[in-house]
Structures are given as C-alpha cells and as structure tokens.
Amino acid sequence: MPRPLQFLGQGVVYLVIALLFGLFSDWPRFTFFPADQAQIMLSFAHGAQRKGECRKLTAEELDELAPNMRRPEICPRERLPVLVELTLDDQPLYRESLPPSGLSGDGPSQVHRRFVVAPGSHRITVRLRDSARSEGFDYERSETIALRERQNFVIDFRSDRGGFVFM
C-alpha cells in the first residue's frame, strides 16, 4: 500500500518535470529572421517538359511486346531541368538549374529558398524555363511590392494558373 510520503515525492518529481517542460518551451528564444527585416520565400515543385519526343511504334515492335504492354507510341520518362531566376531591384538574387527528382529523373524539380531582405518597396522579377529552348524563358512575372517588417512574401509557381503566383 502506497504511503503518503511516496505520493508527495512523486508529485514533486512531476512538478519539476512540468517546470522543465515549461522552461524549455519558451527558452532559449529563436527568431527565424531579424525583426527589422522581411523575407522572400521561393517555393514550388514543377515538372518540366520531357527530354525527347514520343514516337509511334511499328507493327513489328508492337508484336514483340507482351499484350498488356502494347500501346501505339512510346515516350521517354526523363524530364528536362528547370531553370529559375529571381532578381530583386534588377540585382540577381537567385539563379539555378534544378534537376528533376525521382530515380528515373521523371519527377518535378523542386526549390525552397528563403531570402532575408530590407523592408520597403522592391521590384521583383522571377523567370522560369521548362522547355528545351536555349535562350529566354517560358514564364516571367515582374511586379513592384511593398514589404513590411517581419513580412513573409511567398512566390509559388502554378502552371494551371498561368505561371508565378505572389502571396
């Protein structure tokens, strides 16, 4: 049968553990970025065009395939890399060729980058190339925005919505 002294000791131990949890839930303080700055976040996943063109299979090639694998044309799985460029007030902030994800290189290219900038009015230009062209870009958006202190400005890419989305 438990004694009252055991209950008291157990209560003290639980109290100390609860106080430690409370202490470490608020300390040490961590800030994601300085209070007098703003943040631009470039974050999206996008699949570029395929590396090669689809081609029609000949009758001989179709006969060599198993009946459940027969389809009129064959397309390569691999995708092209996505080239993305971000400029702030006409100064380059980020430019990178993003490789496709996946074991076969057939998944979307992904980026998630944060940039700490001074608050105020800025001209943001973001461009993306997802095709085999060697010059220029397939998507581009440029806009002047006013950033406040501690504001998190997100740039996303949605091809179904026409390109870049600013939030």
Q: How is the secondary structure organized here?
A:
Layout: H1 4-26, E1 38-46, E2 55-56, H2 59-64, E3 73-74, E4 82-88, E5 91-98, E6 109-117, E7 120-129, E8 139-147, E9 152-158, E10 163-166
Parallel strand pairs: 1-9
Antiparallel strand pairs: 1-6, 2-3, 4-5, 4-7, 7-8, 9-10
Can you describe what's shown?
This protein is of the alpha+beta class and 167 residues long. Helix content is 17%, strand content 40%. The protein contains 2 helices and 10 strands. It has a 4-stranded mixed β-sheet with strand order 6-1-9-10, with no helix packed on it. Strands 5-4-7-8 form a 4-stranded antiparallel β-sheet, with no helix packed on it. Strands 2-3 form a two-stranded antiparallel ribbon. The longest helix has 23 residues, at 4-26. The chain is flat, with a radius of gyration of 27 Å. It starts with a helix and ends with a strand. The model has no long low-confidence stretch (mean pLDDT 91).
